[in-house]
Amino acid sequence: MEIKKSASKNLERKRGMFFQIGLVTSLSFALVAFQYTSPKLTPKVKDQKVYTIDEDIIPITIMKSAKPLPKPKPPKPLTNQFKVVKTIDVISPVAPVPKTVELPPNIIIATNPPEIIDENEIFVNVELMPGLGECSLLDKTSRALCTEQAIQAFIIDNINIPPSVKDRGEGGKVFVSFVVNKKGNVEDVNILRGLAGAKAMDKEVTRVINLLPQFSPGEQTGRKANVRYIIPINIQIG
Known about the structure:
- By secondary structure, the chain is of the alpha+beta class.
- It has a domain at 122-235: TonB (TolA/TonB C-terminal domain), CATH 3.30.2420.
- Helices cover 24% and strands 16% of the residues.
- Strands 1, 3, 4, 6 and 7 form a five-stranded mixed beta sheet that branches. Strands 2-5 form a two-stranded antiparallel sheet.
- A hairpin with a 5-residue loop joins strand 3 and strand 4 (186-193).
- The termini are far apart.
């Protein structure tokens, strides 16, 4: 058997009214919550004294003097000052006195050490040039010039011009070199430049130079020395 509800007791029909009542109630609570403020809490202090402040403030006035304040005086200079002066003693240097050294009597100090000469060295010019004949009796300068003239005179007196050179009909100069050794003898005779195509003339000049008499040897630093001569011989024909 199906039970039927009466229309007066059916709550579904009053649903809209209940919704409006709930909405109004919730809005009322919201308004009350917005307007509610929490009370201010003020701390309480025991034996707190309350002072009253006068609202009338006393004005502060700054008094200005009519006359300007005097400037401070500068400090007095100190009269009792001590000056410290450094004195430096300048000592002039004293030259040391050289000590004298006594040498044994058998030691001799040479002023200039002797020049070391190679025994085989050949000089072109020495302190004392070789001397030929009586030229060796002259002084150094005259002895050298006299010896050169004596060599030229000896060649002129002893040379013979070969017929082949005479037939040419043309002369010229022959340069001959030779050495006067430490014993005064002539050696190392060489023709430096002879007549073109006249070998016979070179042989004749070499023969005559080898015939030169013995010289007084030349000297360098007090020692006998080898001296080289270069003599030009003028060959004239006709």
